[in-house]
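Input/output pair, single chain:
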Amino acid sequence: MTIHNVVLSILIIACFPLSNLVAEDCGNLIQDEDFIPFHAIIEKEIETELGALKKGERVVVIRPIDAETIRVNVPRKGLLTLSLNATSISSEIERAKNTEDPNYRIVPRMSFFLANRVMSGESSWQDPVHGGMVYSCKRWILLYGNAEMEATRSVVAAANEFYKNLNDSEREETIFVYMDVPGNKEAIQELAEDLSPSIQCMPGYLSRSYSKSLDHINPNLKLPQLVEVASSGRMICQLHGQEEIIDWLLK
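Output:
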């Protein structure tokens, strides 16, 4: 079995709760976070704000919201919150927990979104982070901003110091990604040249796309915004504004 097929067939790594600032509480589902599938199948026709979803339709699971609901991306339609029992997730979790497949691996769900897509600080955001590092991570932090804003520059500078001050083992297990919401390639490069980053970055066009599809940004709040997520994608903490984010990084 190729690594591509393994990645598409497997389900995900355990939550690594590292903050007491809880943005979304997943109740009992947290005990099965290791096994939530990357894709799920709609098990019955349902009406949604995006129109009808047909039985058998496949969706991408973005993250669990609570014990009974999940956030999903419906291809060519958009983002939805669905009841867990409208999908195949529960049965797929049970199948994964009881599998005897020797090729089965537990892999962080966040790595599906970020592997081969984030650039290293060591290369000034020019070269991708090795996929093996992404798949071995246990802590996931994403900083959303606009590289043309002074507040974003200040927060990225603080994030660089935070990341550099982690001990070696913590840094090896932590992905800290700057996401430029407008996807301004020139502004991102200028930011890298000015700040000599230690954190990672997603390139402009991917930043713009994933800033929307990962669905972390609160549209009612100004940038910059920061989220820490469990390996499953479940949000652990959500911060906004230069002062609040820098205060969190300094702690």
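The radius of gyration is 18 Å. Residues 148 and 187 are 6 Å apart (CA to CA).
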